[in-house]
Design goal:
Structural class: alpha/beta
Distance between the termini: 31 Å
Number of strands: 11
Shape: globular
Radius of gyration: 21 Å
Largest sheet: 7 strands, mixed
């Protein structure tokens, strides 16, 4: 039996199945939501089964869709590996070179960076790797100056010299002192925080943090006299001290101590991206394979997380 299924159809299905939200999936795929819906319908028509149950409020996988998902992920993984290996064998990706200077922000160092380095090291064991943990702005400037060859970072709102490839997205969660009554509510909405102490990170070089600030201000949760911080470590310390609640990317759940609780908020839908960045004019040969390995590593982490 022959099916005229395209690689892009399968990629669209997997991302939609992971997100269970067609708008977010379309953003990840860098396409319009109607185009994504057409791709999914085409795949369903070709397979002769319904993969999703759609309603105005939610998207769910059918039993057939859930059964197909693991196989679809395996197909994508094998195709991606095959393409990368073909590029390496054909010389489409240069050898690692003598040295590769890598920058990474803290959220990338626990899982993503090790997954990338494992793949890179396995292919280019002789390349000297210089790795430094820095924040996104310092890393952006470092790549522009040539101090770093490649970086795992939050892509800024504007950048002229550095090219980015999206790797992962994560949602913002509420970070609440454990003793707060909000930590015990089964469901949270922004309106629940009215009357409670709330502060926010002011990092407007990253559009996601600016969007969070706008949402919190619009909900009446921020005032001119509120505390303003510019880094995650300080924000966590303030929540730990019971100063108030804040909203941070969900990776903080892995580093927060027992004094705080991280919770999703129903009407807080802001996401923040993790990307690999590099200067396309740089001649360093290790950049290209690092970018490709970053993509494969991110896809494997998404599959495990979902």
């Amino acid at each position: 039996m022959s099916y005229q299924i395209e690689f892009g159809n399968i990629r669209c299905f997997v991302v939609a199945a992971e997100e269970l939200h067609f708008r977010r999936a379309a953003i990840r795929l860098n396409m319009s939501q109607p185009t994504l819906s057409q791709q999914i319908r085409r795949l369903e028509d070709l397979m002769g089964v319904q993969l999703f149950i759609r309603s105005t409020r939610r998207v769910e996988l059918t039993r057939a869709g859930a059964s197909f998902l693991d196989h679809a992920r395996e197909i994508l993984s094998k195709i991606d590996d095959a393409i990368l290996n073909a590029k390496l064998e054909a010389g489409g990706l240069s050898p690692g070179g003598e040295e590769l200077i890598i920058g990474a922000i803290s959220p990338a160092t626990s899982r993503l960076l090790p997954a990338v380095l494992s793949r890179f090291r396995g292919r280019f064991p002789s390349t000297k790797l210089v790795i430094k943990e820095v924040d996104s702005i310092e890393l952006l400037r470092g790549i522009e100056r040539g101090d770093f060859h490649v970086g795992l970072m939050r892509p800024p709102s504007n950048s002229n010299l550095v090219r980015f490839r999206h790797l992962l997205s994560e949602r913002f969660v509420a970070v609440i002192p454990r003793q707060s009554i909000l930590a015990k509510k089964p469901v949270l909405r922004l309106s629940d925080f009215v009357g409670h102490s709330v502060f926010a990170l002011k990092r407007f070089e990253l559009s996601s943090f600016e969007t969070v600030w706008v949402q919190l201000s619009g909900a009446g949760l921020l005032t001119e006299n509120d505390i303003v911080v510019s880094d995650t470590t300080t924000a966590l310390a303030l929540v730990t001290a019971g100063v108030g609640s804040t909203f941070l990317p969900e990776w903080v759940a892995a580093v927060a101590n027992d004094s705080v609780v991280t919770r999703s908020v129903e009407d807080m839908s802001v996401e923040i991206s993790m990307a690999v960045g590099w200067n396309p004019d740089s001649p360093v040969p290790g950049i290209s394979p690092f970018v490709e390995f970053s993509t494969l590593a991110a896809q494997s982490l998404i599959s495990v997380r979902k």
